Predict the structure.
Amino acid sequence: MTPLTPMERAKAFLSRLRHFDELPEEIRQAIAASAVHRHFDAGQVIYVEGEPAEAIYVLESGWIKATRMTREGREQAMMFLRPPEVFGDIAVLTGTPYPGTVVALEDVDAWVIPAQTILDLVSSHPAFALAMIRRLGERVLHYISLVEDLSLRSVEARLANTLLRHSELRDGQLIVPRREWTTFDEMATRLGTVRDVLSRALKTLEAEGLLKVEKQAIVLLDPQGLEQHGSL
Amino acid sequence: MTQDPDPSSDEALRAAILSRLAKDDRTAMASLRVGVLNGIAHLAGLVPALETYAAAAEVAESVRGVRGVVNRIEAPGAPSPSRTVHLDLAEAGPAGKGNDKLPR
């Protein structure tokens, strides 16, 4: 079988993206024609906050983390994305610098689409504008839930919810594998807190018999109890 | 209520940092990326030596108005660019600025 050209690969991948899959062929073709493939090694920076937004990124493989530094100097996680996903779009559409820093947590393959291509397509194709609006709407909902979490819920409740959201069923047990947070710092950033507070929250939930912290995973011993904690 | 960020001053700080990096012999040849948000400078890129990594942060920090520097430049021996960074801005005071720790 003949391997796909980069443009064909980009086009095929775009059709896997929610809302983009409904776009007419000519629009996907136009996006694919301007898309450039980039690889980032795990740990590499994709862009930093405050940099001019020159492109949007379509995540083809790997896992990325978007963070933003508060005015007080604390790093706050905004999003963790897995493919197929788009990022960098808010800045491009608002004409502002990137609002957060994005790093690759694993090896990442992404398609980089110049801002101008996106802006031209938005002005000329209502179907594309609508697809972008839908994506942005979903992002707004994500941030509403983040604000709600950070302002209304305790660290223990956020932790309980996050663990439940990222749990997997393995051998009859609900576990959260290590790769979902990598380090305590990583998890604290995700929960909008610091390492010491996270550590105390984990110990509290562990003492209540709701979970068990192991080297490679957190075992959720009482999902129902965690669910109750998550609503506090 | 929190103050709205001032994008124009962040933009000016970014331009000043880039200009100083270009003039400084230690960083002039490096390929570096700079972003500034709320007066905090964020550095990225790839340099061949830890000295250049440290010099870039020093140059950014020397720009008046920069409140802190997050150094995510890749260099041999430098910490991971993707690490979690917290700046100690509260204790920086007028004499000092927040900076994430440089390797010793």
User: Anything to note?
Assistant: The interface with chain A takes residues 2-3, 7, 10-11, 14, 33-38, 40-44, 68, 70, 72, 74, 80-90, 98 of chain B (CB under 8 Å). Helices of chain B lie at 7-23, 50-61, 89-92. The longest helix of chain B spans residues 7-23.
